């Protein structure tokens, strides 16, 4: 299993010196999460952002019929949280669950605000992360409304190159908003075209 | 000639399931000092020690998955496995058989307990090994060598000592049944109590002994019990294996390829860029299609 650290992620994204970096990360807490363990459940208040150092998480909701809808996957080097709940202090409608044994850094919302106040480059970085998050969500809504299933699948594999090998097809189908049978058909058609 | 000594004896780690049909102890690369670079060209060794599977109408196993950049070698000791791949091939690997699959630029395959065997269940014991390919062969055409038990040449040890079955490489003039890309010796050694077999491989060849049955002593010094693996040091050429009781030992020795290794999941390449390309090609369907 590949492992990344939040520290090296910040070094490559922040252009920060060692002293500031140590100061920034000294209160970060990491947690080993077992496969299937939940970091957040619906109706709880999300107080943290999660950075995945190793392993894989998913964020999903459950509709009134009990069907799961996967909003996002978070493999190594990804952040996942429910900003709606953590920033606006509302009960969450999402679950965040480990799909593999994972090592996750827990970033407290207040802690992030405090760090942003004292290290300007971090505030700027956090702002960029937020805008990137909005970009990803917008593009996903646009894709769900206007793209064909195949276009959505091709975008999925660009975003998550190795997730196809780490989760069951049913979860990818859930992320794409199609049935597992349609996904299987789609992949077969794609393979037939590529190998013909 | 110097003696090749035992570097360490590894005990089997807690088993885990691959799919629902293989209950394996991983030795390579997860054992301390047995990472891919150290064990080159043997980059993965999963050992399904004897385990009883109950009868199952639905065969247990591992569903469709890809490989690129290396070879998978399945050695069946007990039980039967049915194999299918994306090029339309398929075969049953039964007791004593070896399947040598060169994934090279990419195949999809699935492996399940053979249907009839699954219905009765029984003892299951297998080794699955990944053998790395040199850079020049990583993107060559996939191929299979379905090696039946009877195709494997034997050397009879003197004084009714037992036999050395030569899967690959050569032993005392007997040539191996498998073709390999780089020099590899792979033997099943069956020894009667207190019999000894002697081996000689170049010092730099990475060498392991996996004890499948019984107990052995290496160089009359180091005991290796059932289901344990001895890693040989790169300090000499010759060593001896003596059985303290009826023993079956898998002997592996290979010349290191000595190229950079970039590995992630089922792909083993030389660079990170080649790994990304492997994921991309797999996701886009370039490995073909195989029904689940």
TrEMBL record, chain A:
Residues 33-114 form the Cyclic nucleotide-binding domain. It holds the Pfam family cNMP_binding. CDD domains: CAP_ED (cd00038). SUPFAM superfamilies: cAMP-binding domain-like. This is Cyclic nucleotide-binding protein.
TrEMBL record, chain B:
The keyword Metal-binding applies. Pfam families: Pirin, Pirin_C. The keyword Metal-binding applies. Residues 30-131 form the Pirin N-terminal domain. Fe cation binds at residues 65, 67, 109, 111. Binds 1 Fe cation per subunit. Belongs to the pirin family. GO terms for molecular function: metal ion binding. This is Short-chain dehydrogenase. Keywords: Iron, Metal-binding. It comes from Pelobium manganitolerans. Residues 187-288 form the Pirin C-terminal domain. Its cofactor is Fe cation.
């Amino acid at each position: 299993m590949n492992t990344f650290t939040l520290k090296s992620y910040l070094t490559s994204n922040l252009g920060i010196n060692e002293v500031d970096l140590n100061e920034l990360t000294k209160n970060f807490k990491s947690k080993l999460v077992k496969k299937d363990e939940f970091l957040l459940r619906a109706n709880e208040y999300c107080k943290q952002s999660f950075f995945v150092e190793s392993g894989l998480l998913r964020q999903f909701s459950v509709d009134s019929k009990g069907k799961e809808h996967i909003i996002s996957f978070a493999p190594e080097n990804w952040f996942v949280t429910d900003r709606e709940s953590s920033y606006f202090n509302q009960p969450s409608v999402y679950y965040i669950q480990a799909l593999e044994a994972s090592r996750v850094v827990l970033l407290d919302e207040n802690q992030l605000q405090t760090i942003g106040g004292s290290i300007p480059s971090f505030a700027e970085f956090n702002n960029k992360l937020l805008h990137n998050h909005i970009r990803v969500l917008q593009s996903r809504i646009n894709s769900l409304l206007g793209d064909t299933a195949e276009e959505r699948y091709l975008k999925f594999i660009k975003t998550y190159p190795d997730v196809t090998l780490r989760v069951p097809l049913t979860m990818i189908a859930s992320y794409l908003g199609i049935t597992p049978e349609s996904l299987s058909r789609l992949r077969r058609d794609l393979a037939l075209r590529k190998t013909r | 000639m110097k003696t090749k000594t035992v570097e360490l004896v590894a005990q089997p780690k807690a088993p885990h399931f691959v799919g629902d049909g293989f209950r394996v102890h991983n030795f390579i690369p997860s054992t301390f000092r047995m990472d891919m670079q150290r064990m080159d060209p043997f980059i993965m060794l999963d050992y399904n020690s004897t385990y009883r599977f109950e009868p199952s109408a639905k065969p247990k196993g591992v569903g469709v998955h890809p490989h690129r950049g290396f070879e998978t070698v399945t050695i069946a000791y007990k039980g039967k496995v049915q194999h299918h791949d994306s090029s339309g091939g398929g075969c049953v690997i039964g007791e004593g058989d070896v399947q040598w699959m060169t994934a090279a630029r990419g195949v999809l395959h699935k492996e399940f307990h053979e249907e009839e065997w699954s219905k009765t269940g029984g003892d299951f014991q297998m080794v699955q090994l990944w053998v790395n390919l040199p850079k020049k062969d990583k993107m060559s055409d996939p191929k299979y060598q379905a090696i039946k038990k009877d195709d494997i040449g034997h050397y009879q040890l003197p004084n009714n000592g037992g036999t050395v079955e030569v899967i690959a490489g050569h032993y005392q003039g007997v040539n191996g049944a498998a073709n390999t890309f780089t020099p590899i010796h792979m033997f099943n050694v069956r020894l009667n109590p207190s019999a000894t077999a002697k081996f000689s491989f170049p010092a730099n060849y990475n060498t392991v002994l996996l004890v499948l049955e019984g107990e052995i002593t290496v160089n009359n010094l180091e005991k290796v019990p059932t289901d344990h693996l001895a890693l040989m040091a790169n300090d000499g050429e010759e060593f001896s294996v003596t059985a303290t009781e009826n023993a079956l030992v898998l002997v592996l020795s290979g010349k290191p390829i000595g190229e950079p290794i970039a590995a992630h999941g089922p792909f083993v390449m030389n660079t990170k860029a080649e790994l990304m390309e492997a994921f991309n090609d797999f996701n886009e369907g370039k490995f073909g299609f195989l029904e689940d």
